[in-house]
Amino acid sequence: PGGPRVVLGPSVGEDAAVIDMPDRYLVAKTDPITFATDEIGWYAVHVNANDIATTGAVPLWFMATLLLPAAHATVALARSIFEQIAEACRSLNVAVVGGHTEITYGFDRPVVVGCMLGEVAKDRLVRTGGAQPGDVLMLTKGAPIEATAILAREKRERLLQFFSAQDIDRCARLLHDPGISVVRDAQVAIAAGGVTSMHDPTEGGLATGLWELSEASGCRLEVDLDPDQPFWLPEGKAMCAALGLDPAAAIASGALLLAVNPEYVERMTHAFEQAGIARFLVGRVAGRGVGVVDVRRGEVARPARDEIARLFE
To answer: Nearest to residue 146, comparing CAs of 85, 198, 91, 204?
Structure first.
């Protein structure tokens, strides 16, 4: 029952479900936080809200399942995580409407599984699979913001071999400034017009995000991922290099990847400038088919997993 009302169900590159309501679409997203432990509640809210926003919807309601490791579960730990969730929801004007907490065996760290719901007008829905040949590919803020913040917070002692404590602290603050949320980025883009596709590059980084956009839209992408491109965060590149990681395949929440009708690129550029959001040209949608090609280096390999996952094994 309810099948005919599923406008968008499980599909490669489509990170939220869309359900038909009488006068609008309900958009639903669930995502766990498994890498981070520091400010895990903040991550949980924002990564789920991001995938709601990339459909053009407004995130409105949040639920969380909190799994605490038996060896480390305390009331103070649970309260801290829910305080983070509450703070993040307040920052987005989202209501916490329910959830579940339990002590679970077999874990060595807390895990939060979030579920975000939002709404969008039926004529404003955006799909990852909406990109069209000739569209321009843009990226906001830079990459990899989330990976840099996670590494600074979770691998501090190891990084002290290569960086000063002040530099590591500065990277840790990327979680909040410029932050891992792309909700405002998406709202600015939608208001400017001409958006055919939006995607939040998370696990697997920008490289995986590009592949998912290609697969969802059935279009080949031509990009320039040269290490000297300005959209690579200098501190992110340096941190990944020190740990032997590829920044293009490192979790990249905080950057919004979008395809834009070329007639709207100037308007989009102006809108982001007015909003104070950095934006960069990444490439173009070259034609029908599937694949991602770097104009300097040839085919971009699709990452088998996120780079920072190797550090948490």
So the answer is: 204
